[in-house]
Amino acid sequence: xxxxxxxxxxxxxxxxxxxxxxxxxxxxxxxxxxxxxxxxxxxxxxxxxxxxxxxxxxxxxxxxxxxxxxxxxxxxxxxxxxxxxxxxxxxxxxxxxxxxxxxxxxxxxxxxxxxxxxxxxxxxxxxxxxxxxxxxxxxxxxxxxxxxxxxxxxxxxxxxxxxxxxxxxxxxxxxxxxxxxxxxxxxxxxxxxxxxxxxxxxxxxxxxxxxxxxxxxxxxxxxxxxxxxxxxxxxxxxxxxxxxxxxxxxxxxxxxxxxxxxxxxxxxxxxxxxxxxxxxxxxxxxxxxxxxxxxxx
Length: 297
Fold this sequence. Notes:
By secondary structure, this protein is mainly alpha-helical. It has helices spanning 8-28, 35-56, 66-89, 92-99, 102-113, 120-137, 145-168, 174-195, 204-228, 231-234, 241-253, 259-293. 48% of the residues are buried.
């Protein structure tokens, strides 16, 4: 297989999506804990882990692009609060389907925020992947429309956060960008939890800790991916999360699927692979065109 298919940015996004998929499983395991309280635990874990590593690397935790960092933290915090609330109130299949709208919003906003070009064929590839999601999951019409719209807004804020990461590019250490998420989310979730606290019991503590660790790893590798590649190339890889979800369901819960599910999986993979190959081909052409313009020495 062509090694350019698995560039750094692609590998980072595949890891990120796996960690986020495992995090989703953990959130579903504690439906009795309020979503914002889960985010409180996640924020504490992330803040401590980011701070410790940044200090060890002797990197300032505050960065220098304060406005963009705070904006990224706020957008990410809002996206996660909305998604966790959605995840706990409607079926997992519907929540996952709505979350997969985020690459679409990421690409659309990327046109205006980071001035990236999106070719006509890429929209076709996005449509193929999203069609696969619909084939796999369908759309649960029994879900409360209020939470359905919360899920859509979560995807919108995710797309906004990803674009802020791209704007920051390599100007900030990836963990500095990650650090600003809990920095913004902690005060909000903390105040809410004071008045709506639900005491975790037994395994709840371990699951809540895992939510924090897995989300931290997912955020870190996602940030690395968006710093390494153009948004339109790696954003589509979020669709791979449905493959992780189906695999985890089969391994952990002995879930079996209809033929249509596997057809949907194929559509997702086709859209992702075609998009990656297309972007690689365009990048190689740009490099070749640039080299031909260089003066001969």
